Amino acid sequence: MKPLALVVWGVVAALLGVSAAIIALSRGEPVNAIWVVVASVCVFALAYRFHSAWLMARVLTLDETRATPAVAFEDGKDFVKTHRWVVFGHHFAAIAGPGPLVGPVLAAQFGYLPGLLWILVGATLGGAVHDSIVLFCSIRRRGKSLGQMVREEVGPFAGAVALVGTVAILVIIIAVLALVVVRALAESPWGLFTILATVPIAMLMGVGLKSGKVHVGLVSAFGVVMLLLSVVAGKWIQGTALEGWLTLEGRPLAWGIMGYGLLASVLPVWLLLAPRDYLSTFMKIGAVALLGVAIIFLAPTLHMPALTRFVDGTGPVFAGKVFPFCFITIACAAVSGFHALISSGTTPKLLAKEKDIRVVGYGAMITEMLVGVMALIAACAMQPGEYFAINMAGTPAEVTAQVTELGFPVSEAQMEKLASDVGEKTMIGRTGGAPTFAVGMARMFSSVLKNPTAMALWYHFAIMFEALFILTTIDAGTRVGRFLVQDLLGGIWRPLGNTRSTAASWAASVLFVAAWGWFLYQGVVDPHGGINSLWPIFGVANQLLAVIALSLGATVLIKMGRARYAWVAWLPLAWLLAVTMSAGWQKIFAADPRLGFLSAARSLAERIDAGAASGAPPGQLAQWRHLLLNQYVNTAVTASFLILVLLILAASARSWWLMLASRQSIPLREEPRMQAAASGE
């Protein structure tokens, strides 16, 4: 490095040390959010400049002259050579759904410090490594899915188990993501109008990009302008007939999201999926960058303490101690197994050059890290009483009284004013994390502009861009799920595995949407808010999927003769295994009914028996029976995930032992190398 570069990077490292010390060592005194922003940006810069360069050059050894699947197998439908920034936009939007927004907001009940440390360390040493390795493996294997790669590199049994487990886990993941959208858009005609408007906007962009006659910059400008207009136009429907038609409760919204996921999964990737994701990325990165500027301008104090008393597991938002539940609640902003499905699903079929793995795989992950940090700041800068009232289900009187008893005073009048300020009917019980982040963002933006009356506009802008991103995760995830289901069905009858067959694609999509749609509907009708009970299962399932992906990564590195670098996969794998296994065990067997599924089931069974004996209303008994069934389903699902992942890990460990201790040579299943065409780029 040149002396000037050495000085610059030395200053960046020093800034990181100072800001991290202030954040971590403050006890009782207020901490300014600027220090959190400074620390996060420094981690971002250092990780991308040094860690990603080492990972790509030394560990993966990318080959720029090797043809990628998008080049070698282009078909105009799934394999499409695409500009790297459009691929970055698609990949970032697909992986950065609600996870980096919802997870940090929910985990804020532990205080700002545990979540912040996990985001910064987990994203760089875990998530970015995980995403890059899986994307690299899939590109070298014709864009194959995670389950297919495990079958080829680890063994047929492990592959079959991985494929079944991956499909099952993805079902839960998409159901939870869809539930976040439902909670954000329920009874919100403004937000729903804006989201509906984005569909034709994205399709027009797709047609323009596909034609090749319209410059990508012009298409981008059109999309951004139309999106902003749709946000403003949402306010105009108030008082019109459209307001009544678009004021929907959870059930019809759930059916609508299922229909959208089905259509988006079978349409050509260039028509809706890629342009919508590309547009969404501009909106999300732009909004988060503006939020960072607002934080620096306002210098808000973090009202949530570094650690709250809820680290002991008594938190009102969700039950469970800071370990392991902070580390499964925050997934997508740190380490997320869902990313492995995108990195082995749509993205490897679009990327034109291997060298772009650094920008797309690593870069998108640490960009998402910054999104998670901003969400954490937005939640922790709020008054804790408002934060807890928004994220707890119940009547206004019950919730405000309960939050006040916990030591965070809040009144019904205060929450009514908040709802009026953001243009909503109520903000109590708006569980799911997205409304909390939207309130935090709206308050900061309106404060910067010295216009409190604009808070409603900013709130609905935040809801729009959150829901827009979640929907891009749902459509990309459903498309990946269709690929996985076709892999499974192809083993039963080969024609069903043909991804070029319209009939087979529709059949697989219908089956997959029906599966995640069932869990979505159960979450919608859950009287306790749905998201608070499903999110821990989502976290366990998501991180178990990352264990599978990291096991594959370690296996491939050893087969490639790079066993000395296998630790980059083993290190996050060991941590995630400890976290997920302990969390899964507690979710099943914990004695606290708020935490353990079986103890909750016993409590509900006793309540049903007592209610039947005392003549409780039939509707109440039916609701309790529904919740009882959910507890047993949750138990079976979580236990199945734990067993499946342990089987895959055991099979992977056997192959590691054979290669490292017994010195057996196991062939690497890469596609034959094809030379890329010369490019003037």
UniProtKB/TrEMBL annotation:
Q: Subcellular location, in the record's words?
A: Cell membrane
The lineage's top-level taxon is Bacteria
Where is the CstA N-terminal domain positioned along the sequence? 32-583
Q: Which UniProt keywords apply?
A: Cell membrane, Membrane, Transmembrane, Transmembrane helix, Transport
Give the matching Pfam families: CstA (PF02554)
Q: Which family does the UniProt entry place this protein in?
A: Belongs to the peptide transporter carbon starvation (CstA) (TC 2.A.114) family.
The entry's protein name is Carbon starvation protein A
Source organism:
Termitidicoccus mucosus
Its taxonomic path starts at: Bacteria, Pseudomonadati, Verrucomicrobiota, Opitutia, Opitutales
